[in-house]
Amino acid sequence: MRDRLKDVCVINVCSSPGSGKTTLMQETGKRLSKDLNIAVLVGDPETERDAVRMRDVGINALQIVTGGMCHIEAQMILQALDHIDIEGIDLLFIENVGNLLCPSAFDLGEDYRVTLLATTEGDDKPKKYPRMFLTSELMLVSKADLLPYVPFSVDAVTKDAREVNPNLEVITISTLNGDGLDTWCDWLKERVQAKKDQYKALEVK
């Protein structure tokens, strides 16, 4: 996959089911549509509902139906790339199957792994599923608008996550009220530009 997407920034987005990945992809697409060309490969055991949701708001999206598998594999990505227009794409999201365990063991050729952790899940997940946070560059604490109503500590989850991975970045977001989304989009734009700069440097050599 890396050979086919040399100048495309690829982000593998992981989380438990229901953490808000698809809604985040929709909001991200809306906010970055003027700056970046975005495509999304969506993994689910069954149905194409999430890809349809994204296409309904104008995002170039293709569903990967894993048929019961709890993760996406690299071969599935290669096959999917034959069925989605990646010409001129700056940023490719891989929305992995909702699972904090299985996807952590599979390198899909991504540039960065981002893990969402919803406030509704509890703040004990980094110690329970350490590999996912160890292999991620960024943790997004999602559904931050619910913080006043759920027993969740951003400080505690950040402390636990950074004990697993000291280099992990953390952004707290809400797709409902928009908190943190500008920071998230800036994070993405910086990495897209870094990938393009890296590709240009290799071309010069």
UniProtKB/TrEMBL annotation:
One of its GO terms (molecular function) is nickel cation binding. Keywords: GTP-binding, Hydrolase, Metal-binding, Nickel, Nucleotide-binding, Zinc. This is Hydrogenase accessory protein HypB. Belongs to the SIMIBI class G3E GTPase family. HypB/HupM subfamily. InterPro entries: CobW/HypB/UreG_nucleotide-bd (IPR003495), Hyd_mat_HypB (IPR004392), P-loop_NTPase (IPR027417). GO terms for biological process: protein maturation. It holds the Pfam family cobW. It comes from Sphingobacterium siyangense. Residues 10-171 form the CobW/HypB/UreG nucleotide-binding domain.
